[in-house]
Amino acid sequence: MRVLFVCLGNICRSPTAEGVLRHKLREAGLADQVEVASAGTGGWHIGKAPDKRSQAAAKQRGYDLSMQRAQQVTRADFSTYDLILAMDNSNLSDLMALQPAKGKSKAELDLFLRRYQSPLDEVPDPYYDGNQGFEQVLDLIEGACDRLVIELKGRL
Ligand code: 4NP
């Protein structure tokens, strides 16, 4: 199984989701069976490490994001990944526009929080916010990743 998280810049929300899911998969003993990655719909930050504020907030909860480097999502990702999860509705519509024609895409595309019955449908973009935004991102992502791990267990 391969899972790809997608946000706008790939320096705040989707790298956080990648780090949290990877950690939870290790705890569940599924790290060898699920590959996790993240990407941005935009290319401004390609090659950069996650935002320092995301790294710091994640580290406080035991997630190390420091080795990640931003990349931009491509049409080919729809053939590589089984599940592509968008952080907000704008990311989802950009991905729908990029998606190959029906029948030519292996990936299932969905809105991350909505799929896992989170209190919110979208992970708010924390980039222009204070530190509180980064804590909320982590809270939402941790909750949804718990449900995602249960789904993955059932599908493996
Ligand atoms: P992300 O946050 O999509 O969660 O990585 C953003 C990072 C950078 C920008 C926007 C959102 N930006 O405009 O540079």
From TrEMBL:
Keyword tags: Hydrolase, Protein phosphatase
Pfam families: LMWPc (PF01451)
InterPro entries according to UniProt: LMW_PTPase, Ptyr_pPase, Ptyr_pPase_sf, Tyr_phospatase_low_mol_wt
Enzyme class: hydrolase
Domain (Phosphotyrosine protein phosphatase I): residue spans on this chain: 1-151
Catalytic activity, EC: 3.1.3.48
Coiled coil feature spans: none
Family: Belongs to the low molecular weight phosphotyrosine protein phosphatase family.
Entry protein name: protein-tyrosine-phosphatase
